[in-house]
Amino acid sequence: MMSRVALTVRAATTNDIPQLVRLMGEFYAESGYSLDREWADAAFRTLLLNPTLGGAWVASLSERIAGYVVSSVRYSMEDGALSAHIEDLFVRPELRRQGVGTALLDALVAASENRGCASLHVEVGRENRAATALYARYGLQTATDGRITLSAKLPEPINPSVPNSGLSPRPSSNPAPRPSSSPNSNPSSGSGH
Description:
The protein is an alpha+beta fold. The protein has 4 helices and 5 strands, in the order βααβββαβα. It has a 5-stranded mixed sheet, with helices on both faces. Helix 1 packs across helix 2.
């Protein structure tokens, strides 16, 4: 008889920051990127101390941290309401295909709906079919109206509207691009973004 593994998801707190940074480091390493751990610590601290910016959730399988998901929130003129953006979704490789990614997204979507978000967005690598399939189950699709997303890094804000808790921009010598997906991962089982 197969034993049932307990899967739990909960909102992250500042006490989770060391583990979140470790998980983010694993996510980045899997995608071939380095992570400035001090920057990541400060970024998580800023997010978790300012819940209007978004949130993070951690999943555990039998009390072992299995993965995390992060969202940021902004006001959307197009929607006339708040909009959530999935920043990161990662599940440790050995714990994938056990519903962790789905459970994390369920928590993020429920929190976004409770917050009044009218839309949800994510960036995913074109090659990551598993992530695309997982996100499609939540209604996320490639834009069909011809629009593309353009991005640029801005200089450090002179008068930031949100206290940054010591957060400074990534060092220019190591911009540490964000992984758009883990190419070796299978997000339908919980990894990717």
